[in-house]
Amino acid sequence: MTARSQWTGVATREENAHWRSVAQAVAAELAVDVLARERAGAVPRAESALLQRSGLTTLLDPAPLGGGGGHWSSAFLAVREIARVDAGIAQLLGYHYANSATIALVASAEERDDWYRRSIEGTWLWGDSVNPVDPTLSLTPDGDGFRLAGVKRFSTGSSVGDVILVNAVVDSGPDEGRFAFLVLPAGHPGVEVQDDWDFLGQRLSASNSVRFTDAPVGPEHLLGFGTDEWFQALLTPAVQLLFGNLYLGIAQGALDQARELTNARPNAWFLSGAERYRDDPFVQRLYGELVAQVAAVEALADRVNEEYDAVVARGAKVDEQARGDIAIRVAQLKVVSSETATDVAHRVFEATGSSSTASKIGLDAHWRNIRTHSLHDPIDYKKLEVGADFLLGIRQPLSLYT
User: In this protein, which residues make up the domain named Acyl-CoA dehydrogenase/oxidase N-terminal (predicted)?
Assistant: First the structure.
């Protein structure tokens, strides 16, 4: 693989339509028992297997090596469609895309194809343990490899992943201070997945903690080191763009379910002149407002998804300006998608009435999911990022969040 980027051009309508259709079929299967599964909060093994069988997990992988040969915009669409029904599994899939894409962004040209072949042939689901706000893991040289120790919280997919992507800084030796990308197989010695994921929402995202106890890391587990290459720095905007599409899908799902509930209600409020609840002008007005807001976010998401395709296709030609421009566009989407989804998932109850708060309905799952994940990183800092760029032309320093 000689080209720095395996992704060329942007996704066609036909490509997007294909992967959207695949995702919708998966979502339909997930919808059958989503409420029961969400409440049980069990490790999503069957759901992960469904993603693998569908072909969605290899969507971004190179076609010549057996992958789907798709673009990022198709991957974001797949996440969005599944989030309409099951936001936890949508998160699992989205994080898999970001984690597995580190092969293209980080691995050397000599090793890239081998990593992809193993991942594609094994239909690997990639979990992670990379939470940057946790204390840094200890990665200590040991022979021709390392020893890894410490704990990482919020390790999405770690309990179901065939492999786990781990980030750690080398603490001594000739590589001291270097940021390492490690890939450890499930069941690796010294790696203990904690059963501690018990949160308000995103219950099926398998985002538990992972404890590393002198876990051996050989050269075969080292994907690569962080560099100052701007192409590699596109990973963070990809993750944040994933969030924007995830939030949009949650908002769309809340509207989907609310519409069904409203259309099923037989009577309007007694002071209304309407015969049925759905005929009440106040109800229609509220839906008009919410649907229009979500449509605006969708238009922005589609545009930014395509813009990301175009940037990542530039490969080694990506420079600081291009990376900064797409990061700002993604931040804009993050702001409006987060706030719109939180508002929509809350206000649909006004459009569905008190009966929609019944436990058996499960309409609250959309709000719990967006409320939980929207706290991933403070939205105020995304607003600051956008505002500082607009007013002063100042951009935030690179990090795993900006």
Answer: 13-122
Torsion region of 150: left, alpha or beta (phi above 0 gives left; psi -120 to 50 gives alpha): left
Determine phi and psi for 145, rounding to 5 degrees.
-135, -140
Alpha-carbon span 399 to 54, nearest angstrom: 34
Report the C-alpha gap between 29 and 31 in whole angstroms: 5
The residue with tokens 């308000």 is 200
Task: Tell whether the torsion through CA atoms of 325, 327, 329 and 332 is positive or negative.
Answer: negative
What domains can be seen in the chain, in order of their start residue?
13-125 (1.10.540.10), 128-225 (2.40.110.10), 232-392 (1.20.140.10)
| pLDDT tens for each residue of 344-398 | 999 999 999 888 999 999 999 999 999 999 999 999 999 999 999 999 999 989 8
CA-only gyration radius of the chain, Å? 22
DSSP states along 10-51: ---HHHHHHHHHHHHHHHHHHHTTHHHHHHH----HHHHHHH
Which amino acid makes up residue 172? S
Low-confidence ranges of the chain (pLDDT < 50): 1
Helix, strand or coil, per DSSP, at residue 184: strand
pLDDT at 1: 45
pLDDT of residue 272: 83
How far CA 333 is from CA of 65, 74, 78, 290, in Å, comes to 33, 17, 17, 17
Residues shown for the chain:
402
What's at 342, amino acid-wise?
T
Rounded Cα gap, residues 175 and 251, in angstroms: 45
CA angle 232, 390, 339 (to 5 degrees): 80
pLDDT reported for residue 279: 87
